[in-house]
Write a structure and sequence with these properties.
Length: about 300
C-alpha cells in the first residue's frame, strides 16, 4: 500500500504548496486563472500526446473498458438525472457535476497507483483512453455550446471538439500509438518538457483556489456536493465490481485493478474545465477535495477485500 500513500502524498504536497503561496500573497486568484489556462491550452495537450503516444491502445478493447463504461454511466447518469429533474441545474453546471461524479484521476494519480500498487501501469490505460477520447470531448463540446449560448448546428457541434486543444492532443497521441510512429527528438523533447508542467500547474491552481476561494460548500449545495462525492466514491466502484465480477466473470488481480481504478478520486482537470468555462467551479473544487481525501480509505478497503 506504499504506492497509494505516496501518490496521495505527492498530490497533497503540491496542492499545499499552492495554498501556501496564496497565503503568503506570493500569488492571487489571477495567478490561479493563468495557471489553469496554461494547463488547459498548452501543458495538458502536450501531456496527452506524450502519454497516449506510448499507450497500448489495444488495451481499450478489454473487459476493463466495459466495466469502466458501466460504472461511469451509473455514477454520471444518476447525477445527471438528479440535476435535471430534482435540482433543475443549468446545462453547464450539470455537465461539470456529471464529470465530478464520474471522471476519475486516471493520470497523475491513477498511473502511479497502477504502477506501484497494481504492478502494471497498463491497468489504467482503458479508463484513461475512455475519458480522453469520449467523455472529455463530449463534455467540452457541451460546455463550448453552453458558453456560446443557444444550440449551434449539428455539424458545428461535431466539429467543435476537434478544435479543442485537449482533444487534438489526445488524437495525435492515439495516432502515434496506432501507427507506431515516433516524433523527432527536436519535437518530442520540448513536448515532454511542457507536458511535465501540466500536473503541477493544475494542482497549484487548485491549492490557490482552496485558500482564496469560497469556503467548503459556500455558494453551492451541501447535498449536491455530498451526492457527487458519494457517487464517485461508492456507486462508481460498486458498479464496476458488480459488472466485472458477475456479468463479465473477472476475478483475482484483474478485478482488483478494475475496482481500484473506478475508486480513484475526481480528476483535478475537472476544476480546470470548470474554471475555464466558469461553470460549477465550487462544486468541482469541493468534490475533488472530498473524494481525494475519501478515496484513501476506500482504496485501502478495496485492496483489503479483493487483494
Amino acid at each position: 500500500m506504499t504506492g497509494v500513500f505516496e501518490g496521495f502524498a505527492t498530490i497533497g504536497a503540491v496542492i499545499a504548496l499552492g495554498a501556501l503561496l496564496a497565503h503568503l500573497k506570493v500569488v492571487d486568484l489571477t495567478a490561479q486563472v493563468l495557471l489553469s489556462r496554461l494547463a488547459f491550452f498548452v501543458a495538458s495537450p502536450a501531456l496527452m500526446v506524450v502519454t497516449l503516444g506510448a499507450a497500448d491502445v489495444s488495451a481499450v478493447l478489454s473487459r476493463n473498458l466495459v466495466a469502466s463504461v458501466a460504472a461511469v454511466l451509473v455514477a454520471g447518469g444518476t447525477y445527471a438525472a438528479l440535476a435535471r429533474f430534482v435540482w433543475r441545474r443549468p446545462l453547464g453546471h450539470s455537465t461539470i457535476g456529471t464529470l465530478s461524479a464520474s471522471y476519475v484521476n486516471a493520470g497523475n494519480l491513477g498511473i502511479p497507483i497502477a504502477a506501484y500498487v497494481l504492478g502494471n501501469a497498463a491497468y489504467v490505460a482503458p479508463t484513461l483512453l475512455l475519458q480522453l477520447l469520449v467523455l472529455q470531448p463530449v463534455a467540452l463540446a457541451v460546455l463550448d455550446a453552453d458558453a456560446r449560448g443557444g444550440r449551434p448546428p449539428l455539424r458545428t457541434m461535431l466539429a467543435r471538439p476537434f478544435t479543442n486543444p485537449l482533444t487534438v492532443g489526445s488524437l495525435v497521441g492515439v495516432g502515434l500509438a496506432l501507427t507506431g510512429w515516433t516524433l523527432p527528438r527536436a519535437v518530442q523533447d520540448p513536448l515532454e518538457l511542457v507536458a511535465h508542467m501540466a500536473v503541477p500547474a493544475m494542482l497549484i491552481a487548485y491549492g490557490i483556489a482552496l485558500r482564496l476561494g469560497p469556503g467548503l460548500g459556500a455558494g453551492g449545495s451541501a447535498v449536491e456536493v455530498g451526492t457527487t462525492s458519494a457517487l464517485k466514491l461508492v456507486a462508481q466502484p460498486l458498479a464496476a465490481f458488480v459488472v466485472a465480477r458477475y456479468l463479465l466473470g473477472v476475478e483475482g488481480h484483474a478485478l482488483l485493478a478494475i475496482v481500484v481504478t473506478s475508486a480513484l478520486p475526481t480528476a483535478q482537470n475537472i476544476f480546470v474545465h470548470a474554471t475555464r468555462y466558469d461553470r460549477g467551479t465550487v462544486l468541482a473544487r469541493d468534490t475533488i477535495l472530498i473524494t481525494t481525501i475519501g478515496s484513501v480509505p476506500v482504496i485501502l478497503l478495496v485492496a483489503a477485500l479483493l487483494g
